[in-house]
Amino acid sequence: MTIGHMNLVGQVFGRLEVINIDRVENHQPFWACQCSCGNTSVVRQDRLRTNNKKLATRSCGCLSKESLDAGRIYKDLTGQQFHDLLVERKEGIHPTRRISLWRCRCVCGNISIVRTDMFTGGRIKSCGCRTARVAKINSTKERHWNWKGGVFLGYSFEWNKEIKEKIRNRDNRRCQYPDCDIMDTGTHKKLDVHHINGDKKNSNSSNLISLCHKHHMKVESNKPREWESYFYSIIEGHNQ
After folding, report:
1. Do 87 and 104 contact (CB within 8 A), yes or no?
2. Who's near 159: CB < 8 A, 6+ residues apart?
3. What is the pLDDT of residues 186-236, one digit of tens each?
4. Cα Rg for the chain, rounded, in angstroms?
5. Is the dihedral of CA 131, 137, 143, 149 positive or negative?
6. Same domain for 74 and 114?
7. Is residue 193, in this structure, part of any structural domain at all?
8. pTM
9. What total number of domains does the chain contain?
């Protein structure tokens, strides 16, 4: 015992029993303590004697671990939604991790058993079907004629054969350029479908019109706005 400091040997603070003094730093004693769990630790004197629960040291650290484990084991997650998973009920305790297991129903209908810690940080978002859905979407994009290197080259993902056929049928499968009588009869090459205002990402039917290849190239070589009002008036006539 260093002269000038109180003797805490034998005193108990929470789970810690003071065994002897370990050292003194900057006039502050540090005490070697035996925890009731069997571990030993060295604790600064003011952390033993304080009544402030946030600052006090009352174990070797096992109390905090047990508190965390208790939260993992006993916190009720029933009814909570984690991304695509709805927690239906507790399914038991993990045999080695001392953590709760939960029965979850995915939006796809599948049942999964999930550990509590898997919900945090978005580590799990579905029964596994979300990964499959994303892979399917990516696969569809990669097969799209306009998908290159992870991006669409100027066009929206909705720009496809179906929307083109819809526009050709709306326009009676005839080129809408002035005084052009070329038709898509099945024996000729299909009519091109033109974005009226030049915005390739706007594939709304009100922005699309049918043109033969010759006149499509002619319109594309000019400023789109020179033809906008004319083509929009044709579409309005179709819709009346």
Report:
1. yes
2. 146, 152, 200, 203
3. 666 789 999 998 888 888 889 999 999 889 888 887 766 678 888 988 888
4. 36
5. negative
6. yes
7. yes
8. 0.38
9. 3
